[in-house]
Design a protein that fits this description.
Elements (H helix, E strand, L loop, with lengths): L4 E6 L4 E7 L8 H16 L5 E6 L24 H13 L4 E5 L2 E3 L1 H8 L2 E4 L4 E3 L13 H9 L1 H10 L5 H7 L4 E2 L2 H17 L17 H18 L5 H15 L1 H16 L2 H15 L18 E5 L3 H12 L3 E5 L3 H20 L5 H8 L2 E4 L10 E4 L5 H14 L5 E4 L6 H4 L9 E6 L8 E6 L5 H13 L3 E6 L6 H4 L1 H12 L4 H12 L5 H8 L1 H15 L7 H8 L12 E3 L5 E3 L4 H11 L12 H21 L6 H12 L8 H8 L1 H14 L6 H4 L3 H7 L18
Parallel strand pairs: 2-3, 3-4, 4-6, 5-7, 6-8, 9-10, 9-12, 10-11, 12-13, 13-14, 15-16
Antiparallel strand pairs: 1-2, 14-15, 17-18
Helix pairs in contact: 1-2, 3-4, 4-5, 5-8, 8-9, 9-10, 11-26, 12-13, 13-14, 19-25, 20-25, 21-22, 22-23, 23-24, 25-28, 28-30
The chain binds 3-hydroxybutanoyl-coenzyme A.
Length: 725
């Protein structure tokens, strides 16, 4: 592809400026790397060149190795080791000194390129970091060796293990860069510094061989070992952070060059693991949710949403208002009386001030955000808003009345949206003539923190309205996913079998705490289904369950134990007991008083006749709970509720905490193998047929088809081939 290269300019000052070119972020595609390598060799060989500056075109240094290239080459994660080994060596120890002039971003391989230079300058606003672990790999251009030698081991381990970038100011403080220079002078100062190093008036630093920032050997090894133990505790399923630490340790023990060899081996190993494939998939899938077929390719221009109205200042409404004012959107917050209004305004204020307390925001910025919030008890100013988000009680009649009022009060082009999680969007707007501008804006609680926004369209919602809502979602820093209108939309719908399958396991004789452990520690969910029920509230779960049963009755399993807990007012955290008991600090522990509820549920279900409970390994528990979820996910894809399977992957990761290193629901099933999923589901359908529960497990047609050799799909979704219609 034209434009993927590195160019060079030779100045009369004897400095060659090599510029990385691959818009928009100058990713290090193999063509860019080989261009860089060639230009470097050329510059080093010319007698009129004294020094070299490396920079990036169009205000960005580089966002690292081109992620599209991973997996294209067998082994080594798509990285050509002959270039990799040599270009950093040539940058660091070639005949001429090198200086990196960094603007915008220096991430991953981008920062590693800069680290190999003999000095670094950056401009204000630059972000520098090694986020490779987020992609299931580790730094592969020498970062595991050079970063610790530049900023110290402890800081380097933290930067790599958290993947968090640092600011220009922090980079200067850490010694990661040698100076911060306004962007208009950056190149000139980098040239001058390069010339001075060439002239010997400034020292030439060879980072790989520095030891001045490294802790003494014993302390350094203790830092790595501590980081290893912590990582194993925090992320027991992940191997690549440990591989990263192994490479760092090798460099500490045996020196930088041996460390580079260890890094290359560790990188190749990490790149061969499923976690890497899954995380790269999520990286692109998350960016692709904003591309919706028939909407974002329809030649329309999104309209910026500058001012919205939020109806209802409860938990959801105040969270939505918080996210909006934080992103610079003006908000009218409407309530039905002054008491509720004041409570809602206070909630927004508390949400914002807690960011100040945590050091995430300056007080002045918080004040400015709060200045964008106006409380109201009337519709008087609703003519000024671009969009309304209704977050009132879940009552169809009430919502229909509100939407009729909104139609009268708002401009004819204002978007009318509802945050309902249970009511049909078409019903909400049934008393208006505004169907084309009615859309669901389904936030997850707490709305100012949870990153997903489901944008629910009906067949009548106009493309322009979907486009504008997508734009609003991105503006308030959510990941928007467009979904179709059905009970539960995408996320709540695919997760309804989650708790139900868990309840069935208990009715079959399994201990609920064993089930939770398998799902949390064995699989990697943030918590098991029963702990989640306690968090959400058994009453809410039961309400949602009834709702779902109404629509998908033939494949629901009645959660009797949850009904029993609701009857006894054991609703979870909010009442101090549910499946678990909670102390004053809301710490959960197993509760012996749960036993009679378990017994009652088992008796009613009649699936367990006492004696030894059936043998279920942790893996069996995971499959029994998640394969029905996958099955529902396939229905959601086949019905076109999501635009593409990857959207469901992103939604399940962001809203339910499905482990991103498993790739999201559908990608995980792909990695596990559709055939295995379908076979197990079919087995359980047969096993539970006599109990009338085969509908809960029966594999969907799409899933079966994909798992049968020789059958071709009618719709091809590429690697997410399981979701076939
Ligand atoms: N490779 C390929 N494409 C990349 C890329 C990369 N490293 N980084 C970003 N892009 C693409 C995105 O996919 C997106 O493409 P699209 O417009 O077609 O959807 C485009 O660049 C713009 O990216 P964003 O939408 O994310 O724009 P933002 O301005 O929000 O963010 C960013 C920019 C901070 C650079 C962010 O994209 C990012 O964090 N990128 C990934 C950085 C990273 O992980 N680097 C490590 C790569 S692995 C590596 O270097 C291995 C080495 O150690 C050997």
């Amino acid at each position: 592809m034209p434009g993927r290269t590195a160019t060079v300019e030779y100045g009369s000052d004897g400095v060659a400026v090599i510029s990385l070119q691959n818009p928009p972020v100058n990713a290090l595609h193999p063509a860019v790397l080989s261009g860089l390598f060639d230009r470097l060799r050329e510059a080093h060989s010319r007698s009129d060149v004294k020094a070299i500056v490396v920079t990036g075109a169009k205000g960005k240094f580089s966002a690292g190795f081109d992620i599209n290239e991973f997996g294209k080459q067998a082994g080594g994660g798509g990285i050509d080791s002959t270039i990799n080994d040599n270009f950093c060596e040539l940058l660091e120890s070639g005949p001429k000194p090198t200086v990196a002039a960094i603007e915008g971003v220096a991430l991953g391989g981008g920062l590693e390129t800069a680290l190999a230079c003999n000095a670094r300058l950056c401009s204000p606003g630059t972000k520098l970091g090694l986020p490779e672990l987020q992609l299931g790999i580790l730094p592969g251009f020498g970062g595991t060796q050079r970063l610790p030698r530049l900023v110290g081991l402890q800081t380097a381990c933290q930067m790599m293990l958290t993947s968090a970038p640092v600011s220009d100011a922090k980079a200067l403080k850490l010694g990661l860069v040698d100076g911060v220079v306004p962007r208009e002078r950056l190149l000139a100062e980098a040239r001058q510094l390069a010339a001075e190093i060439a002239a010997g008036t400034k020292p030439r630093q060879f980072t790989l061989y520095r030891t001045d920032k490294l802790e003494a050997l014993g302390e350094a090894l203790a830092v790595v070992d501590f980081a290893r133990a912590e990582t194993q505790k925090r992320a027991p399923h992940l191997m690549h952070p440990l591989l990263c630490l192994d490479a760092i340790r090798a460099g500490i023990e045996h020196g930088g060059r041996a460390g580079l060899r260890a890094e290359a081996e560790a990188f190749a190993k990490a790149a061969s693991l499923d976690a890497h494939k899954a995380l790269v998939h999520i990286f692109f899938a998350q960016r692709a949710t904003k591309k919706v077929r028939g909407v974002t390719d329809a030649g329309l221009k999104p309209r910026r949403i500058k001012r919205i109205a939020v109806l209802g200042g409860g938990l959801m409404g105040s969270g939505i208002a918080t996210a909006s004012v934080l992103a610079g959107v003006d908000v009218l917050l409407k309530e039905i009386n002054d008491k509720f209004l004041q409570a809602g305004m206070k909630r927004v204020e508390a949400n914002i001030m807690s960011r100040v307390k945590k050091g995430k925001m300056k007080e002045a910025a918080a004040k400015a955000a709060l200045g964008r919030l106006i409380g109201t008890l009337t519709y008087d100013d609703f003519g000024s808003v671009d969009m309304v988000i209704e977050a009132a009680l879940e009552d169809v009649g009430l919502k229909q009345k509100i939407f009729a009022d909104l139609e009268a009060a708002c401009r004819p082009d204002a978007i009318l949206s509802t945050n309902t999680s249970t009511i049909d969007i078409s019903l909400v707007g049934a008393k208006t003539k505004a169907a084309e501008r009615i859309v669901g804006a389904h936030f997850f609680s707490p709305a100012h923190i949870m990153p997903l926004l489901e944008i629910v369209r009906t067949p009548q919602t106009s493309k322009q309205v979907i486009l504008n809502t997508l734009e609003y979602g991105s503006a308030i820093k959510k990941t928007p996913v467009v979904v179709g209108n059905c009970t539960g939309f995408a996320v709540n719908r695919v997760f309804f079998p989650y708790t139900q399958a868990a309840c069935m396991l208990v009715d079959l004789g399994l201990d609920p705490y064993t089930v939770d452990k398998a799902i949390q520690f064995g699989f990697g969910m943030p918590m098991g289904p029963f702990r989640l029920s306690d968090l959400v509230g058994a009453d809410i779960g039961l309400h949602v369950g009834h709702n779902v049963a109404g629509s998908y009755g033939e494949r629901t399993y009645p959660s009797r134990i949850i009904q029993a807990l609701v009857d006894a007012k054991r609703l979870g955290e909010k009442t101090g007991a549910g499946f678990y008991k909670f102390d004053a600090r809301r710490k959960a522990s197993p509760d012996p008083e749960l036993a009679p509820f378990v017994e009652r549920s088992r008796k009613e279900a009649g699936l367990f006749r006492g004696g030894k409970p059936p043998a279920f390994s942790p893996q069996d528990i995971v499959e029994f709970i998640f394969f029905p979820v996958v099955n529902e996910g396939c229905r959601v894809v086949a019905e076109g509720i999501v635009d593409k399977p990857a959207d469901l992957d992103v939604a399940t990761v962001l809203a339910m905490g499905f482990p991103p290193y498993r790739g999201g629901l559908i990608k995980w099933a792909d990695l596990v193998g559709a055939k295995h999923v379908a076979t197990r589901l079919a087995g359980w359908a047969e096993q539970f047929k006599s109990a009338g529960l085969d509908g809960f497990f029966r594999p969907t047609r799409g899933l079966l088809r994909d798992s049968m050799p020789g059958l071709t799909a009618t719709v091809d979704y590429g690697s997410e081939g399981m979701a076939l219609i």
